Amino acid sequence: MRSLRFGLPLVSLFTGVALLFTAPAAHAADTPLRDLAAAKGKVIGTAVTGSKLTGTYGDLAGSQFSSLTPGNAMKWGTVEPTQGTFNWTEADQIVAFAQAHGQQVRGHTLVWHSQNPGWLTNGTWTSAQLSSLLQNHISTEVGRYKGKIAAWDVVNEPFNEDGSYRSTLWYNGLGSDYIANALTWAHAADPDAKLYINDYNVEGVNAKSTALYNLVKSLKAAGVPIDGVGLQAHLVLGQVPATLQQNIQRFADLGVDVAITELDVRMALPADSTKLAQQKADFKSVVAACVAVSRCVNVTVWGFTDSDSWVDSTFPGYGAATPYDANYAPKPAYYGISEALGGTTTTPPPTGACTAAYSVSSQWNTGFTGQVTISCSGASLSSWKATWTYGAGQQITQAWNAVCTQSGAAVSCTNASYNGTVADGSSVSFGFNAAWSGSNPVPAVTLSPA
Ligand code: XIL
């Protein structure tokens, strides 16, 4: 920590953070997920936001994953917000990033009931017009990226939970033939891209996945180009379907590939170490089910960091659904994926941490007021002791919400009778007044149970 100089922001001068029981911040020693996956003949992917592909987000997206799916960039509403006016900026950026990092791209998605442009959904179209709009859209988008897309989610979410066709712009206007036609048009535009139908709640054997199974079977029998099914896998903590592997296998036995296309495991917030351990088990069992079936070719997570997940805004009260936390630290779930891919963890999986942050809240000629905040995430304390050594003769004169003693430069503060417990996800603070002269450098605080 630098010593006191005038003219710099107070916050950078007067704060310090000590870590207790933390996992290492970087896990460079662990084999990247994409290398583990490759050794198993699998592809591991993530949904991404194009504008975030720099810094740590870009480093992790590029180094850990062998496939990228644009989270929104290739949806119709993004690429053609006004009829005839195209915006390929983010999609192009993601494709270029993937090519620079030796990654596949999963195109997502061509025919869906959601995230369509207003001009399309608000228009009044005859069946013939609707059909030609769809054909043009598919030809234009698939054609633009011909040779650059490993697999397209051609049709997204065509079914209701009971296995009937969802009532959509497409089904209502064109009947169920829209599915075969979309696949045929996509194949014409890029014969090398693998073509998928993608849906949610089709991970286990159930009415919806059976409808998908029957559709794929009839498409294959009719000679329609269908290469795979995407199981989105937006899962709830502890609810991986017991029939996941069996379901993957039955599609494989039909002669199509299977991909887990949008894996996340949401939990009621706040996260705690028990939930994070269950989430690790859930990610591990999903990836293991894919590893167990040779035609399961790809597992893609729907955002790799909790700072880039659709869950928090879509399912109020739920979150923490991805393998990395919002600060890009790998969560237990990351190690669940790694272990299912045959990785041996060379650094201990993080079990959470408690940290102590020292700050000076006000300072005058001869004295200052400081405080230390002890916070726990994925860990907890039932008593605590914060110690530090002052480097410039500072002397504590009074403390509150802790019992502090100072001997020479060494300060030791233990919890008061009423605030020794720091629960997972919570914090406790104590304060003090002290004297200083000359300079007032921030000390390094060591935190331990008392
Ligand atoms: C989500 C995106 O992640 C969000 O950013 C957007 O606001 C809504 O769509 N099933 C899908 C994905 O097939 O396209 C959805 O993506 C999540 C559910």
UniProtKB/TrEMBL annotation:
Domain CBM2: 347-450
Signal peptide range in chain numbering: 1-28
The reaction(s) this protein catalyses: Endohydrolysis of (1->4)-beta-D-xylosidic linkages in xylans
Residues covered by the GH10 domain: 30-340
Gene Ontology BP terms: xylan catabolic process
Keywords: Carbohydrate metabolism, Glycosidase, Hydrolase, Polysaccharide degradation, Signal, Xylan degradation
Molecular-function GO term, any one: polysaccharide binding
InterPro entries, per the entry: CBD2, CBM2/CBM3_carb-bd_dom_sf, CBM2_carb-bd_dom_sf, GH, GH10, GH10_AS, GH10_dom
SMART domains to which the protein is assigned, alphabetical: CBD_II (SM00637), Glyco_10 (SM00633)
Record: active site: 262 (nucleophile)
Pfam families linked: CBM_2, Glyco_hydro_10
Top-tier EC class: hydrolase
Domain of life of the organism encoding this protein: Bacteria
Its EC number(s): 3.2.1.8
Entry keyword Signal: yes
Family in the record: Belongs to the glycosyl hydrolase 10 (cellulase F) family.
Protein name listed in UniProt: Beta-xylanase
Lineage: Bacteria, Bacillati, Actinomycetota, Actinomycetes, Kitasatosporales
Gene: xynA
